[in-house]
Structure formats: C-alpha cells, structure tokens
Amino acid sequence: MPSNSRRLDSVCVYCASSNAADPDFLEAAAELGRTMAAERLRLVYGGGGVGLMGAAAKAAHGAGGRVLGVIPHFLTSHERPLKTVETVVVNTMHERKMMMFEAADGFAVLPGGIGTLEEVIELLSWRRLGLHAKPIVFLNLKGFWDPLFAVFDHILEQQLVPPEFAEVWRSVDAVEDILPTLRSMPTVAFASPPGVEELT
After folding, report:
1. According to the model, what pLDDT value does residue 76 have?
2. Full pLDDT tens readout for the chain, 200 residues
3. Cβ-contact 82, 53 below 8 angstroms
4. Is residue 26 within 8 Å of 53, Cβ to Cβ?
5. What pLDDT, on a 0 to 100 scale, did the predictor assign at position 173?
6. How far apart are CA 25 and CA 110, in angstroms?
7. Are strands 169-172 and 67-72 parallel, antiparallel or unpaired?
8. What predicted TM-score, i.e. pTM, was given to this entire model?
9. Distance between alpha carbon 145 and the CA centroid of its chain, in Å?
10. Crossing angle of helices 114-128/93-103, nearest 10°?
11. 174 neighbors 167 (Cβ within 8 angstroms)
12. How far is the C-alpha of 200 from the C-alpha of 196, rounded, in Å?
C-alpha cells in the first residue's frame, strides 16, 4: 500500500433496504460485500437483511468477511436482521448512526432512499463542521446520485458552502473503484469554521 494511502479496516456502507430496488443495484451491493471480504475489510451497515443492505452483508459473510450490523429495536421486524452476522440492537436511530460512524474508517454510499439520504447529508454536515475527516465515496451507478450532485453544485455556486466542500467526497461509477478511491482521498481542511466570515 502506498505511504500516502489511507488505512482502512472498516467501511460503513449506506444503502437501500428495499427488495424492489433495481437488480443491478442489488448486485452492486453484493459485489461490494465480496470485494470487502476479499480485502479483509469489515463491512459496517444498518443491520437489515433486506434490500441492498442484506445483499451486501450476505455476500460479505458468504465470502468469509467480517460484518457488523447496527439496528434499532423498532426496525428489527421490518428490516429483518441477519442471524448469521454480528448485529448490535440499539434503542434509537441516533445510537445506530453514531455507532456506525464510530466503527468506520470511511463511507461508501450506494443507491438508497430517504434514510440513506438523511444519513449521508448528516455525514457531510459533520465533515463541513470539522467533526471528522473520513473519506466519503458515492457509487453513482446509472447516474443514480446525479440529482443530488446537482444540488451540491447549486449550493457551491451560491457560495453557501466553501469551495473545499467539493473535495470531501468523490463519485465513482463502478464498485471496483470504491475502495481505491476511499484510500486515495486527501484530508481536506476548511479555511475557517462556518460563520466566522460573518462574525469578523
């Protein structure tokens, strides 16, 4: 591994819990799970056994990989956690998100619904506030995340976030590019805390 490469041991995967997802998305999740197992990386995910979440976890476990699921108790009947992988049941969504965040060295964002969107926006907000410097990579399969990227471009154009915001995440089109991109991303520091310009 190059000396300037980030060290990864665990990667948190945010993705959909819907079994109705595009089969290509489900296969991409499974491919990522197998790839992480092959590279001896622990998969951290939302603990469900359905949708892209289940596909990634089952594939990682089936390939001999390490898996950590984190799920709130009220979702266990809906998202059906896997009995074959390590799963922590917590009380709230806040606990779930914090445990997943703390357990990960980087984040892979696969196609997902409103829950995935909420998780990644919070993650980017924390990054903007300087609360972490962990890399974030979107899998933009079939252009899934293009509308979100258009919003990011819009807020950058409106100067509502600093230019450095564009450097704290990356987009890739293929599963095979996720882990190399996570490892290669530089640590970007924001010039000043948000709001300082207005207060000085």
Report:
1. 86
2. 444 677 899 999 999 999 999 999 999 999 999 999 999 999 999 999 999 999 999 999 999 999 999 999 998 887 788 889 999 999 999 999 999 999 999 999 999 999 999 999 999 999 988 899 999 999 999 999 999 999 999 999 999 999 999 999 999 999 999 999 999 998 766 655 555 444 33
3. no
4. no
5. 98
6. 8
7. unpaired
8. 0.90
9. 13
10. 60
11. no
12. 6
DSSP string covering the chain, please? --TTSPP-SEEEEE----TTS-HHHHHHHHHHHHHHHHTTPEEEE---SSHHHHHHHHHHHHTT--EEEEEEGGGHHHH---SSSEEEEESSHHHHHHHHHHH-SEEEE-S--HHHHHHHHHHHHHHHTTS----EEEE-GGGTTHHHHHHHHHHHHTTSS-GGGGGSEEEESSGGGHHHHHHHPPP---SS-TTHHHH-
Tokens 């917590």, residue located: 90
Read off the tokens for 29. 């999740």
- Residue 31: count of CB within 10 angstroms of its CB: 18
Virtual torsion, Cα 169, 173, 178, 180, nearest 10 deg: -90
Bridge partners (DSSP) of residue 170 are: 137
DSSP 19-53: TTS-HHHHHHHHHHHHHHHHTTPEEEE---SSHHH
